[in-house]
Design a protein that fits this description.
Number of strands: 8
Order of helices and strands: EEHHHHEEEEEE
Helix content: 40-55%
Structural class: alpha+beta
Shape: elongated
Radius of gyration: 56 Å
Number of helices: 4
Strand content: 15-25%
Distance between the termini: 160 Å
Strand order of the largest sheet: 3-6-7
Length: about 220
């Protein structure tokens, strides 16, 4: 190897230049960084043809290293999990609220039924007292302080919903009257109560005791 004039760097020999040219054109020689052989022209063309064929068939690119296009291996979404949990808790809360509303309605209904049954029991227990008061009134014995007590008792029971019924001349109704006596008369066109032997009592639509009457049928 000879050096160029005016420089200490030796000039390359002709044989060295020829070897460098062969290395550039030879694909089997390592690249400048020693990273492996450069692919030849035929290999590049084959790789391009393969990628075009996969694209026509709808297949993923071979360079994706087998990645799952469906995303099955993707990490879970924390926001989606939180929304699903919130929906589940909301459904549970709505069911519990519906159960509580139904329970409260049942309790209120049972309370009303129990109160009504209690009132009816008290009224039924006082009916004999009212019969005695009515008997005293018919015989003219309801006078003085006793009359005042009877009036207050009747007013109190009326506020509790007690109502008396049964008057002579009413049409006979088996749902409200109990026939103790029966005869036939020409003066009536239908079964009629001709005499009230004992008054009946009801509260609302419920009959506590039917009126006991004498009934006349048309002859």
């Amino acid at each position: 190897m000879s050096s160029q004039p005016g420089s200490d760097v030796p000039a390359p020999e002709p044989d060295d230049l020829a070897e460098a040219a062969d290395a550039v054109t030879d694909p089997a020689v390592d690249g400048p960084r020693g990273e492996g052989a450069h692919p030849g022209t035929d290999e590049l063309v084959a790789s391009a043809d393969e990628q075009a064929a996969r694209a026509e068939q709808g297949l993923p690119d071979g360079g994706s290293d087998g990645a799952d296009p469906s995303g099955a291996g993707a990490a879970p979404d924390p926001l989606a999990d939180a929304l699903a949990l919130a929906d589940s808790r909301l459904s549970e809360l709505q069911r519990e609220r519906a159960d509580f509303v139904n329970y409260r309605r049942r309790v209120e209904r049972d309370r009303q039924v129990a109160g009504q049954e209690g009132r009816e029991a008290v009224l039924l227990a006082l009916l004999p007292v009212l019969d005695d008061v009515e008997g005293a009134r018919q015989h003219g014995d309801l006078t003085g302080p006793f009359a005042s007590v009877a009036e207050k008792l009747a007013a109190t029971l009326q506020r509790l919903g007690l109502e008396s019924f049964g008057e002579p001349g009413e049409p006979f109704d088996p749902a409200q009257h109990e026939a103790l006596l029966h005869d036939s008369q020409t003066e009536v066109d239908e079964p009629t109560c001709t005499q009230v032997l004992q008054k009946g009592y009801r509260t609302g639509e419920r009959v506590l005791r039917p009126a006991r009457v004498a009934v006349a049928s048309p002859r």
